[in-house]
Specification:
Length: 156
């Protein structure tokens, strides 16, 4: 991604930011989004695009890791296969909302590259864990989901 449009005025240089400074670079955010959407929707073209973007900064990332934090998180997710948690609720029953406390209880135990998706369904409130292109049977309890996630979404 560049800071100026292709059809804009002609400049000496079309600036594109790859480094993560105080705020993550637009390119690393785009690469993350491609990976997360690709993982959620099993769109391997998006996953491959995120890998291509990552490959463009890998050498610089290894030499100066402090300037590529968001890229490093993406590299972890790609290397370790990603981790995707689906919090499903019955759309017809407002009593089955996922609370902030429940969501935090799940998120605080998981790796930073985990994607959490909220999904309306017609079934009861449940949690589905997907890791390494495998989705496990949905469970009803947070501790059950965490056990599956930590066994399959860890650094080991």
């Amino acid at each position: 991604m560049a800071f100026t449009p292709r059809n804009g005025e002609e400049l000496i240089v079309r600036k594109s930011d790859l480094n993560d400074d105080v705020i993550a670079s637009p390119n690393s955010v785009l690469a993350h989004c491609l990976f997360q959407i690709g993982t959620m929707k099993s769109n391997f073209e998006y996953i491959e695009l995120s890998k291509i973007l990552l490959n463009q900064v890998t050498k610089s990332m290894i030499q100066n890791p402090g300037w590529y934090f968001n890229w490093s998180k993406l590299a972890q997710a790609i290397t370790l296969g990603g981790c995707h948690i689906k919090l499903e609720r019955n759309a017809n029953n407002p009593q089955e909302e996922w609370t902030s406390a429940e969501t935090l209880e799940i998120a605080k135990h998981l790796p930073s590259w985990t994607t959490i998706e909220f999904k309306n369904g017609t079934q009861k409130k449940q949690i589905e864990v997907c890791a390494n292109q495998t989705c496990f049977a949905p469970v009803a309890q947070i501790n059950q989901a965490l056990e599956i996630a930590l066994d399959n979404c860890s650094l080991q």
